[in-house]
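Re: that chain you flagged

S.,

Sorry for the slow reply, it's been a week of failed gels. I finally had a moment to sit down with the sequence you sent. For the record, here it is as I used it:
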Amino acid sequence: MPDGAMQDSQDNLAIQKSALRKQALARRDAVEPSVREDFATRIALVGVDLARHAIVRTVAAYWPLPGEPDTRGLLAALNYHEFAAALPVVAGHGLPLIFRKWAPRDLLIEGPFGIMEPSSRLPEVLPDILFVPLAAFDRRGHRIGFGAGFYDRTLADLRAMKQVIAVGVAYSGQEVPAIPEEPHDQRLDFVLTETDWIDCRTN
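Prediction finished late last night. Pasting the structure tokens below so you have them in one place:
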């Protein structure tokens, strides 16, 4: 494909993804508070159950930004049940995330995107399960994030080293029929919503 046509194709994909992201986030932000609270409990229960059945040690989640499904209960539940819980840390632009072990008693600091991160004094770990934030998803396991590509790079890096399970966390309203694919995209294995557990490996 000529360079100009390739650039046009990439630009069109970016425009499509931006529109899908905007629409899905608007639906996410309209979710009622009671649904948010119930989903936070569901995330914690399902997350611990998955860790037990997968027989893993280390589970990474994310520290929620406003509007995102709340994983703080999951982090507390993992710690209570003696799993190693971890949070991501931005290592730099264009680099995969790193993960540091974290418990509710540990310090959090504000990272470069305003997201709370574990202190650099806490040990690095390699997660076996990742609970991944997203803006939009489809049932094939494709996701739209927030444009920086951190989780695609991170999943590619981890999957080159070991077997990992990637679980997208979203409200059902963030589902779209199909997300445009790009070569660097890393598919989710599952998506957890307030109403469903979607096995993307079979789609």
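What I noticed first: The longest helix spans residues 3-29.

Talk soon,
D.
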